[in-house]
Amino acid sequence: MSQFDLTGKVAIITGSSRGIGKASAFELAEHGAKVVISSRKQEACDAVAAEINGKYGDGTALAVAANISDKAGLQALVDETRRAFGRIDILVCNAASNPYYGPQEGIADEQFRKILDNNIVSNHWLISMVAPEMRARRSGSIIIVSSIGGLRGSTVIGAYCISKAADMQLARNLAHEFGPDNVRVNCIAPGLIKTDFARALWEDPERIKAANQSVPLRRIGEPHEIAGAVVFLGSDASTFMTGQTVVVDGGVTI
After folding, report:
1. DSSP structural state of residue 121
2. Catalytic center residues
3. Is the pLDDT of residue 211 over 90?
4. Which of 14, 96, 188, 247 has the fewest C-beta atoms under 10 angstroms from its C-beta?
């Protein structure tokens, strides 16, 4: 059996109606997992779940809308997953927000709080909801999609970078706490990826040309290239890896 085989595993992926989250859900299903699609709008979740079920068979995907800022909504997501599939083996905290672009001194309190709440606190909530069963079962993988922004400073997305650095520390702390129970917690730090989140950049020919000059691979990343890392961290291929941040950025941070 392949180390990457996920048959019998159940994964929740937040922010999975598009971009990295959607690509990750498809790739997890490709390797045998049952997947729970979640984002803010039920209709969008239903559409992705229908695509996955159409490709991999009915019952492969479940759609449960949840806003990451709503703790009760996240608990409902976890409860519905357990009701439908009986367990949670993999959690992918992918959803995030960045409502402000500009210097740190200009950010409003409510914008700063939204970034911290959605990108850090919501991950803490969701992890706290799934970790007890993983620890009791002595098996589970928690994956936080961070960003290379958490490794570098920025004059225009500073608060976002702060939140992503905190996610890396959250993974390190929880890796210590959960490790004795064989539950792993890791981060992925993508570089610039062709998603709606970065559309303003990659749709501008001059801006993307300039950006790509700083990337050794000379191109923007694709969502499926992050999905491969998700499968690695969710599978037995990474059972001796925890508390780490896997950088997938075309070499830009080297």
Report:
1. I
2. 160
3. no
4. 247
